[in-house]
């Protein structure tokens, strides 16, 4: 059994909760869960969501069933078992600022340090093993030095919600139970030396950053395909548009920057040269809902100096793609903790994350990282 | 220096000859040559095309320069050095039957066995190391048993031109100089146990079959991408249309069958289940020329039973893509011969061929095979 | 009230029956019915399907409800009112030959002439106004001369099911009640001078041929767009693949020919020159179901001799598209009969048909024909 | 003979000048010139570019040949006849502000009023008939009232370069020769009641605004296609990215706004309801050059409430598309002046402009406007 706490009960967390229940009930196949066909120490059925946190006043104190009803009630039937899991108030620190939601946070009532210890008490009581961060994309930078992070916690400002949560998990690991923290939003945690050092000290594991779903891994594999054939990429264009809260958030320039940077980096990492590119979340259009539209175009030079063109279009359910990966990441975080890993685990991050921590040289293609992951797990591809 | 004989002086062989010359002259970068950025025992500049064979009466006795002028003179400037290489009459055995070309073959004048020894004499005189088969797609089946192949050679019928050429290379290897035979058309040679056994006996190397260019490797890598994420592919559609001789040939149902089989096999090989698919060369349209149009579409199930859709479109120069791979294959064939390999080499075939010989279980994705190839070469990815 | 008899209770007829009922019940908007927003002498609610005919033994004597349950029961809820309409045995004449259905026809028991009068008796009894032909695409050629058509009826062979039905409607019109015949399959009826002459004589109206749905009208309008800007189209490629019975039928070369001809003709008609093109139903793939996949590509020369490229992809519900047009065609056929039209009506055919009868010069773009249709109806665009 | 003055010697004007020369010399067909196949009072060969104006110091005092060499010298051979036409300094008024060009304007030396009369003197001397405005997209609003426009001219500020040029043409028409002004950039001139009133008074003709090229007319015709079939459009997405100066300019939010507004308006105008849409120039990527990439996606409801999807991709040479239309617009402006038209001419604007003046109700589809234009010209479609 893996006890899980969710941070941010939005679309991703909702799909995660529903999907796990439906798999437990034998209603659906575990499609979209990369390692579902392999035998891991923990089964999907071992995952138990114990609690969720949010700062949207419309979600706090509601059951996951009620939240799910509102978010995806028109497309999925919601398992009744979600009636027993509740959303509690989390840490805000302005992470929803500027978005059309009324938000509140524990730290506003009791100060940040008390808020953190309030969460730790919850987790101790529930026996939480893994904490998953899926709050809305926020703007944030690394602290680099641990003392700066600790200072920000003390002062209760100059710190993102994600960093505060990460700090809480570290303290929880130090004082009570070694835990895993899975960060699938862009805020740099596994890429922040300050955070990684802290986790190494307390014997906890942080996985991150920015879950690799949607078009970026596909672009990465496509570029790898071309690189292996020594085709010279003249340019890459990739548009993304969607209608969920994350795309709405990304319409704010500061938040958008968080994504653009990640998405752009893969070009040079994989090709070995910085082919001109335009790769960013492009817009928000409500009726697209959670099923985003991606359009990609690139030109390359082939043998004898001739030019080829490729176009890729996709409609992709954004949240389920990430939720499917969380089903693995939760299990991998627990396995890493069980194995005594401390800090972060590049072999896991490399396949699941857009910006795999720790901070280092160039990224590798997803397909290569997949085989490295299997190796780390002692599995053979089948 | 690697001395090369070309079988079939069509678009691919023409791009190969031009491209190598332009690289030698420093006119173009070796884009489209997968291993160009690695240090191999032979450089691209070491390749020397010594002779070419064809059965089209409009090409026989012409220089490669004249042939090139006709085929690509409107899009490329033809290096003058090609004026010194000539097209000789090859073996026909009906390989151009039904196509709008006047064809003739050595065997029509002197019988098959003498024709084969005529070629061997040529090669001995020129010191040929590697023979490359790029004749037009023909219909052909494996012999499976060596004695059946030998019987067909003796009788001079019931044998494809490709098999006859392969037999000639084997005899050349036995009697004069161990050579490599590179088969990039669909006729099963590296997939014919009869051929592989013969090559093992005489100490020669056959690489094949059906050079992996265009849409099939891209489809393979895309399917691998989905398989690694455990997405369930509901169906795959892939259309191909072009205006070169190969597409004209594939408009004949028998020849088309040769391609359809290869292209379809990758689906089950990579996914592990035979997702319904329609993958075949679809048509011929003259103004598309050598730059074919590929359209692909697939649907898959993601987490929580939801459905995503992907579309891929491409305009791809068909012949240069294959020519670029031949630049590697010629060098790899020579390296394999130098290393004392006999029969065929799966590590090479797996990356470069649609139907990598020898006959065996399932294919692997191109990206995986790329890393296995580097390993075989003792190289590290960069 | 317009009493309708349906020939061929397949997907199109099923969507037609369901859609009309749902519109009557206020359940859905009349989307996909071109003239829904205009005031015509007959409302959609005035359409009353009285009877259907089929030759598939699995459909004969079943209610439209039962047939619908089988065909679209997984995607739509079927109105209970369809329980009162039954499928009767129709005329076969080999129209399902070679397809995986067990078929039977009235003519096999009683001869063709008696079969025809059996139908006429039905229609007289039910007071039928309009007969709609939506049987599976069959191979058929025009008779050109009326006496040849009459001879074929007499002899009971050398005649398609569609021609036999058309003859029945003519006799019904002559003896009992002037009726309209709507032919939306490719068999040439409104394009057969023999048929048009017969209808003119008996005072009936035949509309046809080959309902314009899916990609062809879109291609037509796209070509018109280019023609109006004097862009020179270098080539047009259009692939179509689907998983319904019609695509299965079109996998038979003879039937395919019926479509290819129609689809190809529009290129020259609209552009004024026969740009090289490959436009045909390309394949059958079961999981696509009724929602076909269309891929189109064209290149053209723009000002200063430069080249542009366009790609169009679509997933289109095949049968509903045609069903929506039938909702208009049934009403227009009745209006034409009411107005005393005899023979066929080009103004209607031009917008709704791929091969608008009568036989004549070049087709016009759909957008132009739309405005001509409104004119014929005395309506103003809004 | 039509004497023409060009305002803004960028890519469009350069393609215009080259294309007209090549047509005169019989080197190319007049593809991309909508009315080329019709007989108009003026032939393409009657167009004579007499002078050009620009504010980029790198262009002023150069010949059109030199400018063309720089802009398109790598893709086209430049006619020597362009050596005789020179670029003179124009009016700046900040129209290039913020872009990476060094700019200067006549008004900076002599004040706006004198600058205007300097231009008028030029035109009088050269006998100019038609003035074409193709300066870089600038931000600008209508004056609505003529006295406000006149006041801005007097004060020499609060006025766009386009308005100043329009005013100059009006004064030239009043004092010397009735002329036509063709505005193909978004600044509202034919849509500014102040300008139209002024032109009506002086007997001049202004055509505009914002030349309809690229994706917008295609989107318009696609929407018209759907509207005629009463399909309900759920949303429309349209991305545009290019690498020419205009896309660079549009990366500035203020200038972008000018385009977004125009592009969005067509949705409601054609469909009759404001389907949710995201239609805007999306980005700048240098290697795309003048051949922009457009990606469009829409979903609609068809009959029986089912959903279809369409995707359109295109690579379009941006400047030649507009240049081809200018070949008509120059002739139409002269024809309108000859016919004694005053103010603006909706019948011309409706087909050629994205925002056809004068200010009025809803736009019409391009295809409809095409037939209205032919009517205005007394021509019959062929």
Distance between the termini of chain A: 26 Å
SS strand fraction of chain A: 15-25%
Q: Give the helix proportion of chain A (percent range).
A: 40-55%
Largest interface: A-B, 61 and 61 residues
Number of separate structural domains of chain A:
2
The CATH H-level homologous superfamily of the largest domain in chain A:
NAD(P)-binding Rossmann-like Domain
* Average pLDDT metric of chain A: 93
Structural class of chain A: alpha/beta
Poorly predicted runs of chain A: none
Which fold name fills CATH's third level, the topology of the largest domain in chain A?
Rossmann fold
List the total number of helices of chain A: 13
CATH architectural type of the largest domain in chain A: 3-Layer(aba) Sandwich
Per CATH, the class of the largest domain in chain A reads Alpha Beta
Quantity of strands of chain A, as a count: 10
Largest sheet of chain A, described in full? 6 strands, parallel
Regarding quaternary structure, what we see is homotetramer
Net shape of chain A: globular
Radius of gyration of chain A: 20 Å
Q: What is the spatial order of strands in the main beta sheet of chain A? A: 3-2-1-4-5-6
